[in-house]
Amino acid sequence: MAQQRRNELLELSARLGQYSEFNIVDLYDLVSPPDMDVEGHLRMVFQCFLDDSKDQFRDKVFVSAGFFGRREDWKRLRSSWRKCLNHNEIEYFKTSEYKMLEREFAKFKTAAYPPPSGREKATAIRDALLDIPRNFRGIKGIGIVIPVEDYEKVCARPEANDFFPADPYRRALEGVFDSMARSLKTLPGNHAVAYIHDGGSDFDQLRSYYEDYKLLNPRHARCMGEFISLDDKRHPPLQMADAIANYMQGIGLEWVKSRRTVIRDSPFNVHHVGVWTEHFMLSIVKRNLIRLGRSIPKDLQSDEYG
Known about the structure:
Elements: H1 2-16, H2 24-31, E1 43-54, E2 61-70, H3 71-87, H4 95-100, H5 117-131, E3 140-147, H6 148-155, H7 168-185, E4 190-198, H8 203-216, H9 218-221, E5 224-230, H10 236-258, E6 269-275, H11 278-291
Parallel strand pairs: 1-4, 3-6, 4-5
Antiparallel strand pairs: 1-2, 2-3
Helix pairs in contact: 7-8
């Protein structure tokens, strides 16, 4: 039955990726499958749209970030976002295309928009889009930043081999899962969240990370629905996730320079930004060593590591 249900959800995920709007019955099945035996009116359906961002050479920071909110908020935001796109005669927004003035932004690199007017027009469109989330207080941004240098120091320790063997983005993604689950538990009532990621070539791997996390964190798994893919060119919330990931990347790069988190005027409501420092990751290593009954290295025995 479990495999049959998995196949049904994968088929549903593919079908949803073809449309700009969710069918609420389909979405509810994704978040609260029938086999969870949960009364529908007890659950508030949230969606978390995720994206990742890396510095150009992947040698400074890895980021996983996204937005979460209720379906009603997303519906209104989609409408506003599409209205802005249509007004500016572009199909979708993608940060990399905006930066390079290519594809949807290629026309701003033509003779019709000589420098600097082309860049100025593209920036005006980007800023108009990023003004939209400010009007929706129910949609909040979350992000996890992993400095590569700190991560590599932790991975170099033999006792960390069982806990930090994967690429940094996996750990950043798991940090978002953890932050989201903890946030839902602070809200009154019962809640569930569906995670939506853009359908890149690594989606199946990311989905396996999600399933592994749920197995290792059964308490958090109770509020975690499905992990599905959608086409970011068709779905405005994923375009917003792309924007927040790049914003969080900027925060991460600033942290590498100053070793402190600086959140300036944000284009959206920031719920949580976490930086996984060497100290924080070593605390995770220590907790896992204790859980498994293994010896604690002398330099981690201090109470400062939890």
